[in-house]
Amino acid sequence: MALGAITNVFRVAELRARLGYTLLLLAVYRLGIFINTPGVNRSAMNAYFEAKQKDGGGLLGLFNMFSGGGLEQMSIFGLGIMPYVSSSIIMQLLAVVVPSLERLQKEGAGGRQKINQYTRYGTIVLSIIQGIFISRWLASMGRTTNEASGGLDQIVVPDAGLWFTFMTVISLTAGTAFIMWLGERITENGIGNGISLIIFAGIVARLPPTAQRLFESVQAGTVTGDLGGALALLGFMALVIACVVYIERGMRRIPVQYAKRMQGRRMFAGQATYFPMKVNAAGVIPPIFAGAVLSMPATAASYIPALSGVEAALRSNAWVYNGVFVFLIIFFAYFYTGLTFRPDDVADNIKKQGGYIPGIRPGKQTAEYIERTLNRLTFGGGVYLATICVIPSVIAGLMNVPFYFGGTGLLIVVGVALDTVQQIEQHLISRNYEGFAGPRGPRIRGRLKVMA
After folding, report:
1. Domain residues for 313?
2. Helices and strands in the chain, H and E counts
3. What is the dihedral of CA 285, 290, 291, 293, to 10 degrees?
4. Cβ atoms of 386 and 407 closer than 8 Å
5. Residue 254: beta bridge partners?
6. Residue 289 sits in a domain of what CATH number?
7. What is the pLDDT along the chain (452 residues), one digit of tens a residue?
8. Which among 24, 208, 225, 449 is least surrounded, fewest beta carbons within 10 Å?
9. Euclidean distance between the first and the last CA atom of the chain, given in angstroms as a whole number
């Protein structure tokens, strides 16, 4: 059935063209990763990131992951799509507290188009700011040791003058703007959400070198349990992926009953439906926020000596670090869900449409019931996110593997894959082809989009 469904994808001319268009633009993005920013020694940057990977990477490793390795290569796509993602999140948060933006959100397509335009402007501003910081960071790096070149010291930026800062800011800002354009073209003319697919492509492109490092570690005997341990690790990875897919598709269905209504002279019976509530309504935002907060002491310690003790405590004790990380993830899960989901508005919309939850009075009691349900789901979703994000450090500590499996990258890959499969299936269903789940099986449900 699955093979037949995949074959059906290529039988639809429009779907075939959309897939080809999407793959072509993603290939353009991946080629741009290898175009250097002027004035930066790529070999020295690679040596620096090799040293950082041994220490876990931190926030720098997170940015490098979102840029698909562009920061490690110090390419014109070094900022990746993160400025656009950050601008989108900021616009979502501002829409909650700024009445004019809230009104724009409720104006339909015209309002959303205006908000998208503001998001683009914010992307350019953030790109310029981040480009200035990166150029100054590169200028302050000095020398790095490249083991591949016999341990010779190399200068990262030979000429770190004002012209270098200007060219770096222009190159990185133009690269981010081009990636943003690619993502919007994919969303409009291709398959799936373009911004999410660009992040997805960057993460997946790093899988082959990761597999190579695991293979080399097994050959060298550095992985705990050698070949048996590696096989057990692969089985555990498959189990974790299956759990992520299951929970990302999970939802709580709140039954909603609509009263009988008259249309002309005809009486229509009440309709029974449900209101879906995602288990993980916050998506990958809580781990991103938590990782950024935990990286602040290390970043600020060089400027504020008083924070060096906090940074040392977090770095030296894995239990303290992971405990704070788990707490922050659960906190931001509640924080972000509370900002983006309003039980009062949901209850009011259900009441206006003539609906009610069986056994619950419309209005305030409905809002309270939805809020209680949301709080329980958010706690479960926060624990789930924290577990997935702590898995990398646990595996690295127990099995001494040379890579980090799990975390934000795994959540993004699985979520984007589910969204894309859902869109492909919708195209197949609209043309009377069976989907990936078979003719009678359940349809793939996408996750809540919180990134782009």
Report:
1. 239-405
2. 18, 7
3. 130
4. no
5. 275
6. 1.10.3370.10
7. 455 556 767 777 788 888 889 999 999 998 888 888 888 877 777 777 776 665 555 556 667 777 777 777 888 888 888 888 888 888 877 877 788 887 887 777 788 888 888 889 999 999 999 888 888 888 877 655 555 444 446 677 777 788 888 998 999 999 999 999 999 999 888 888 888 888 888 888 877 777 777 777 777 766 666 677 677 778 888 888 888 888 888 888 888 887 766 555 665 556 778 888 888 888 888 887 887 777 666 666 555 666 666 666 666 666 777 788 888 889 988 888 887 788 888 888 888 877 888 888 888 888 888 889 989 999 998 899 888 888 877 776 676 666 666 677 888 888 888 888 888 887 777 766 545 555 555 555 555 444 43
8. 208
9. 33
Residues 398, 126: Cα–Cα separation, whole Å = 39
Q: What is the dihedral of CA 386, 388, 394, 400, to 10 degrees?
A: -150
What does each C-alpha distance from 284 to 82, 198, 221, 421 come to in angstroms? 13, 16, 35, 19
Stated as kind and residue range, the H or E segment containing 332 is helix 318-340
Instruction: Answer yes or no: is 18 within a domain.
Output: no
Determine whether 365 is exposed, middle or buried from the number of CB atoms within 10 Å of its CB (0-12, 13-18, 19+): middle
**Neighbouring-strand partners of residue 145:** 153
Asked, for residue 383, whether it belongs to a domain, the answer is yes
Residues in the chain, overall count: 452
Question: Which tokens is 254 given?
Answer: 């709140």
Across 113-143, b (16+ Cβ under 10 Å) vs e yields: eebeeebbebbbebbeebbeebbeebbebee
Q: Count CB neighbours of 109 within 10 A.
A: 7
Within a domain: residue 438?
A: no
Structure-block tokens of residue 170: 């222009």
Q: Select from 247, 256, 202 the least CA-distant residue to 411.
A: 247
Residue 306 lies in a domain: yes
